[in-house]
Specification:
heterodimer, A: mainly beta, 7-stranded mixed sheet, 4-stranded antiparallel sheet, 11 strands, 50% strand, B: mainly beta, 6-stranded mixed sheet, 5-stranded antiparallel sheet, 0% helix, globular
Chain lengths: 113, 111
Amino acid sequence: DGGITQSPKYLFRKEGQNVTLSCEQNLNHDAMYWYRQDPGQGLRLIYYSQIVNDFQKGDIAEGYSVSREKKESFPLTVTSAQKNPTAFYLCASSPLLFTDTQYFGPGTRLTVL
Amino acid sequence: SQKIEQNSEALNIQEGKTATLTCNYTNYSPAYLQWYRQDPGRGPVFLLLIRENEKEKRKERLKVTFDTTLKQSLFHITASQPADSATYLCALYSSASKIIFGSGTRLSIRP
């Protein structure tokens, strides 16, 4: 999975609770991304970051928040405002923003009970 | 509206044959197109990237073509093996829409 780690692999939360998903990369990449994947659907872009302390909303940012305080780390918080949070979440990185191959982490499967 | 479609949800072929997967798009002007492989419960793995000014790219048993007139990319795996069984995703990048992924084609290679 190319030097990107996501933890945990499986996560269970009660409805109404915020939860933070971890993503760390040791590839020295500037750009990082968060995607959501639902069964039978393609990946949908939640947030992306070109550089430290900068991030932009993707196509489905509502109910999510991110931070990019360090180059290696790009945590995603799924807030209680996200209407349907149960999904497979994938983090990725690339040397430059959208101009190169993306390297994906192993994913976190979040189930909200 | 913008749309990206992969030709079928599932494709079953015999070992040794060539697998051909299709990615069609509408209302995009992609700068490049990528193909990824995804195994169950894992993150996608990059396979090939082809730019708008390129017609064909090859890597070992893999070949991808890109026809911007037809708005279509074809992904070929020659001499297919059971180990090639996976879901294959295409992804388009354009400056307007950023990156968009197709829903994938699940390929099964039977011995």
